[in-house]
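User: Is it possible to get a 3D structure for a protein together with its bound compound? The compound here is carboxymethyl coenzyme *A. I've pasted both below.
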Amino acid sequence: MNAKASMRIGDRQIELDIVESSEGDNGVDISNLRKELGVVTLDSGFANTAANTSSVSFIDGEAGILRYRGYPIEQLAEQSTFLEVAFLLNYGELPTKAELDAFEESITMHSLLREDMKQLFEAFPHEAHPMQILASATSALASYYPEDLDPTDREAVDLSARRLIAKMPTMISWAYKYRVHQPYVYPRNDLPYVARFLHTMFSLPTSEYVVDPVIAQALDVLLILHADHGQNCSSTAVRLVGSGRADVFASVAAGICALSGPLHGGANQEVIEMLERIVADGGDVSKWVAKAKDKNDPFRLMGFGHRVYKNFDPRARIIKQTAQDVLAKLGRDDPLLDVAMQLEEVALSDDYFIERKLYPNVDFYSGIIYRAMGFPTDMFPVLFALGRLPGWLAQWRELTSDPDLRIYRPRQVYVGPTERDYVPIDQR
Ligand code: CMC
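Assistant: Yes, that's possible. Here is the predicted structure of the complex:
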């Protein structure tokens, strides 16, 4: 017999079903709580709430484990590719060679944007943040494919997902090109996915960009490491919008908006800006650690702390090593890497960070690699978005293929004024 939980309020007690996980926390099904006991649950930041069951990725925050569809992130980073991971997340299994070839080919053939989309980029001021442009362009894509927007048409959804994976690198690079007043570069379909993206970003009509395999490989690893992360803020935004039966483009655009915040995907940009400030200020890392601890100072150590990881972030471990490898292979030095490592060392031996279990997260070292690749700082969050895209799509498909899907609609505990009469303006 399945285990049950019970809840008592006053003299009324009910039994609650326990939904068993295959690994990790089981869930107490409280869906009848209000009907049976007349109360709702209250959980700030959803820290203790599972919004849904999912089989896309598994995180054990205490043990520092992240797996996509059961495969450890370390193995995928070392042996897989971003497109193979995108296939795995979206279809549940690693592809055969023939499946992967067909998937890659279908992505490649959708890499081009409609020519009139240029007008959309050009409607923005040149100094617009690339996340703002990317969110708008993603949302606008829906208007080019009105015949394929029905969330219940699985073939149309599949086509839209492939279009998004194919076109997002082109949208990102065109947002960049517009920004820096350079001509747009069309995707070269003879190049593999990541190299094609780098080429559209950095090539010029006057000088062809030759993709360095060290850079392409490191970017592929970074994209893999960002590809999914359970019910994080942006994936939850994607699901929430999808639960209202909005199309996949609108849902992903919502994910991009959610990701743009400095506590989420905007943190990688903030980390570099913080490291630059520390270097410009003389490089005294203990001063900045003290600022981060000071409750009267709003400063936080960006790239530190995580809602789920309370031991270490397995992605950060791989990224730190990748940052060191990439700089060594490119024969470059970056003073920000030295400061970052000092900051990590000082923070990790400090009681404030130890007690609160605050460790470097995925964003702490990734910016140092993006910098070495030549990306300007405000492009970092869009690189996070490109990496997270397959996860958003997988989460959205899981949501919309659930026969029991209900619109996301949380309750609230109302604490505002009780009923009172309207007072005409001349009597207030
Ligand atoms: N620097 C200084 N103190 C911190 C930090 C930090 N980076 N992060 C958390 N704390 C403190 C916080 O002040 C609180 O202290 P106290 O218990 O004394 O009030 C305690 O640690 C718990 O913090 P919290 O804000 O309640 O934790 P949370 O789970 O709600 O927030 C977080 C998680 C990632 C938003 C937060 O750690 C943070 O703001 N980090 C900096 C931003 C960042 O690096 N974000 C990227 C997250 S990883 C990638 C992603 O998800 O996009």
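The first strand starts at residue 4 and ends at 9. Residues 154-179 form the longest helix (26 residues).
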